[in-house]
Amino acid sequence: MSNLCRMVKISFDAASDRLNTLKTKGVDTIYNVIDMTNGIYDAAASIIECGKSVKGLGLKWCVGINLLPLYQGVLSETGNDNRMFVRKAERAGFENTHKLFTKLGEAGVLPAFARIDIDLFNEITGMTLSFEEQTRMLNSCINGVKAVNPQCKLIFNSVDSIDNEKAKKWFNRFQVSGGKGFDIISLSYELNADTFFTLSQNMSDLSRRFDKEIIVDISGHDSVDGLDIGIADLDSAIELVPMEKGFGAVYNDTALDTAVLVA
């Protein structure tokens, strides 16, 4: 039996019946994305209800921390003043993640995983941030999560699933710049026979080099039917990651309407 994590990206308003259906298909983790804004913790009722539904079914919960709306709000206050922006972004990142996770903890629904997309800085327009500044901003959010929930596994997602040099460079620079500890490298990937071997090489290299577990995110596929690389092929590649560092895969909710997960 496969021990791979089966994670599904789904909206917050998904009904409990849908979550139960996914569980019967072999899914063990539900992934919801939170658009972080200043004061998000005061409007956390729907997030808490979702967590209760997930936990009530005995499933694990992963929350995606989408920092872009929060940083855009800070940018609207500071303008292109780098020093002021970074200082306020650090504070906002820590306070909002810390207070939100505190609320989740009080409700008994702390997530098992928290994910941050590391490419978000490419989407902040009108601002050029040094890598050290980016690292400080990410560290503040990691600190906010870990201060409340030390057991929460941090996932860093990268779009550079088939660009080993670029991915390797980012994680190297994060370490050198004083980046805080995280647990899992996620690679967003489009299933394709032409790049599949390159993905496998990247997974193996990153896992060995940084001693991290690897998860592959194929949630960009609304359907996986008829592709030249299928879910079973992906499973096999993940299971071959050295030192048993192949953690699992992330699927789109709709892709599992017809796809079969191998037990």
Summarize the structure in words.
- The chain has 263 residues and is an alpha/beta fold.
- It is 43% helix and 18% strand.
- It contains eight helices and eight strands, in the order βαβαβααβαβαβαβαβ.
- The protein has helices at residues 16-24, 45-56, 68-78, 82-106, 131-148, 164-176, 196-210, 231-239, and strands at residues 5-9, 29-35, 60-66, 113-117, 153-158, 184-188, 213-217, 246-252.
- An eight-stranded parallel β-barrel has the order 1-2-3-4-5-6-7-8, surrounded by four helices.
- Strand 5, helix 6 and strand 6 (184-188) form a beta-alpha-beta unit.
- Helix 3 packs across helix 4 (82-106), helix 4 (82-106) packs parallel to helix 5 (131-148) and helix 6 runs parallel beside helix 7.
- The mean pLDDT is 94.
What radius of gyration results from the CA coordinates? 18 Å
| C-alpha termini separation | 6 Å
Bin the helical content.
40-55%
How does the helix and strand content classify structurally?
alpha/beta
Name the beta content range.
15-25%
Net shape = globular
> Which stretches of 5+ consecutive residues score pLDDT under 50?
none
Order of strands across the main sheet: 1-2-3-4-5-6-7-8
- DSSP summary: helix tally: 8
